[in-house]
Structure prediction request, 414 residues.
Amino acid sequence: MRTEQEASRAISQYGDTVRRICMIHLKNHADTEDVFQTVFLKYLTNSTEFESEAHEKAWIIRVAINACRDLIRSFFRSRTLSLNELLDQPDQVSHEHRGVLEAVLSLPVKYRDVVYLHYYEGYTAPEIGRILNRNVNTIYTFLTRSRQMLKEKLGGDDNGQQNSGRF
Amino acid sequence: MDNRIRDAFDQVTASQTLKEETLRHLRQKMAAPPPKRTGFYRAAMACLLFLVVGITGYWFYFVPTSFISVDINPSFELGINRFDRVVSVEGYNQDGRELCQQLSLDFLTYSQALEEILNCPTIVEYLQREELLSLSVAGKDQVQSQEILQTMETACMGKGNVFCQAVDNPQQVQQAHEAGFSFGKYQAYLELKALVPEITPQDVQNMTMREIRDLIREAEGSVSQSQSGNYAPGGGQGNGWRGGKNS
Prediction:
């Protein structure tokens, strides 16, 4: 079991990451709170010795995604709400960013995780495969298709340099 | 597009309130005593209770407190529970087992069972052929045994060739079973053995009660002659003949 200080540090360090994963999967703030508590309670009670920060972050991401999926499967999960209600401070999100997030959220669920992990967290397809416990070729397929769909939704202004066509 | 996605996700952050609320929740969890496994213990207690009630109930209902031995040549025993119900029927020879299968005595009261037995065509036919029916009762509960004996005597009233007795020594019941006899027939064997010491269980195994009683009568006759005519009818701890060839 970890100490309160370690848990506090993890919340500060990975809170935003967990929050973004929650946004991808969940439909309201109450569910997000549930997943937050689940993830960091698991962190508190888990005795896994992490080899590095990257290892720790990957563990948090994996646990958060699983917690979201469990909650979605739960009979008691809450109903769908708008993006405004998904965001803690909706007024601070610009019109353009809101459009991008809505485009990401309009993707099939299986694509959202890979989009977030690749485009935001910067993981490669093999790394995403390990985190999501899926075949790397499947990840490549998901990334290609989601990229195509996002291009269509966002107008195809592909100005990214780092990841264009390379996963 | 990569930058746009990155910038958009950058806008999504966990509020301070959410972080603080999560930390507060973790503190509460840490401060709370480990959850007692009340559910487990309750389930275990319920199982235990169910088991105890089940075993006690089984013992209370299905363990016989008295036995009735029914012997002509068919020999079988009825186990009677504390509620005066027949809870076991066991044949002690081939005829007895066949008769048990014919009669449906399970869970009848012993008085109903006796009525069924006495009115059973097979038994009636045996009695008409001048065979002897021996009804014996044995049990740890003396009060119940006495009540059963009285019921047997009442049921047999007016019927010929029927003999009712109580066996007071429970050890004889066990010895009878070890020897492969119903205890009613074993009681008759003991009576005969007292008069004819060389008689063995094998000698009487296939005898009818009539044949055993006739041998007892003959042996008693020869003993009484040798004892200058001191004739003592019946014998053992039974209540003597309630019937007989001429009754």
In short: Chain A touches chain B through 46 residues (CB under 8 Å). Residues 4-25 of chain A form the longest helix (22 residues). The helical segments of chain A are 4-25, 29-45, 53-73, 83-86, 95-105, 109-120, 125-132, 136-154. DSSP finds eight helices and no strands in chain A.
